[in-house]
Structure formats: structure tokens, C-alpha cells
Description:
Blueprint: E1 8-12, H1 17-28, E2 32-37, H2 40-52, E3 59-63, H3 69-82, E4 89-92, H4 107-135, E5 139-144, H5 169-189, E6 194-200, H6 214-221, H7 228-240, E7 249-251
Parallel strand pairs: 1-2, 1-4, 2-3, 4-5, 5-6, 6-7
Amino acid sequence: MERWAQKCAIVTGAASGIGKEITISLLKNKINVLALDVNTEKLSLLNHEWMQLEGSNKLCIMRCNISNEKDLERAFSFMETEWNSGVDIMVNNAGVIELSRIIESDRAAFEKLLNINVLATAMCINRAVRSMRQRNVEGHIFNINSVLGHKIPTTVFSEIDGCNGWNLYPVCKRANITLAQSVKQELIDIKAPIRITSINPGLVETDLFKHFPEHVTDVIKNMPILKPEDIANAVIYALSMRPEVQRISKYV
């Protein structure tokens, strides 16, 4: 991990859950982090927590809607101008889920899922790779994905309307698997020293499910579930591998 010391990372959805744990883990490994999220209150709590740990590495928090092109450009420009650097590690963690059926949903739900889970991820990868190539540096991109991108469960959390499906969430996660594979091949073709890793966890104990009805959270409580730090550990493990080790997918 020493070769990443004082390098710069961007983490999306960094204010809580998986994103927060990844942010803290990167900081503890001497990596500077620009933490992006739409929740300013939780971003402030993250900043306060890092200050209490008396960490020496830079943490900058920024409200950013990653599906908004201007917000995203402002974040990357900030790193280039204020930090006089660019992104060396890009962690695409932000995402939204919808538990309604596709056949009972609407266009607004479809657009929200696709914009945040797929299009924003593609834009972050595009912008991060440009930054890495301009400086001719080693880079690493992470897509925090899901096992739902590989297999759709035959059961749902509930039979109650609004909680009885997966909507386009598995579609988005499958798209991100293909996105990572496509980008990997493009990076190989141009011989860029940039790796891309897709981490595909199962259920993770995050704030994502706290917004669901109680009967759904009760079901989840009785299921095997991962901790956010498990995913953060997977990111650090992949980063620690020698540059010659190509790693496209990791299940946790």
C-alpha cells in the first residue's frame, strides 16, 4: 500500500455505510480523499469523525449529485485546482435501489435508477481515466456492484405492493459488470497502467434499507448479512496487489 501514500481518491456515496468505511480505510492508509454525497449532514459527521481520529491525511467533503453533470465536473475540477492533483483512485459506490415491480413502476423510477447507478458511474470512470492518463500515473477504479448483477433471486423481500420486486436494480448492476469489462479491455488496448475492479457483495448492513418499511427490515435482520467494513477490506486488498495483477471481479 505504500505506493498509494499521499495519492488522491474520490469516493461517491461516501457519507454512510460502505462509502464511509471505504473513505476511512483509504485515509488510514495515507490516501487523501474527496468524499462526495448528497447528504451534507452525514458528510459533516464523517468529517468530524476523521478529525477526532487525528488523521494526518486530507479529507475534503463535498455535496455532489453524481447524476448532475455540473456537480460532477465541479468535484473533479476541485481536485485539480485546489489539490493541484488529479484522481488516482476512483470508487464508484453511490447507488439507489427500488423494490417495486418493473411492470408496476414508472419512467421516473427507471430514470432515477439508470441515471445514478449506470450513467453516473460511466461518467465517473470516463472523467477519472482522463485524469489518470493526462498525468500518466498508475490508477485504480472500483465499482461497488452487487451479486444481483449476476443472478436475480427467485424470491423477494415481501409480497406487499411496492416491496415485491427488484425493478431495474439488477439490470443496472448487470450493466455495470459489462461496463467494467468493456473499460478493462479498452485500458488494455491503450496499454494504460490503470486497473478496474468490480466488487460484488450480497446483502450489506447499510442505511440503504433503513428507508424501507419495517416488515422488509425485519426480514433482512434474519438473513446472513455483511458489514460495510468487509467491503472496505476488499478495496484495500485489491489496491495492495502489485500493478501486474489484473483483477476484474471480487465477490464478498
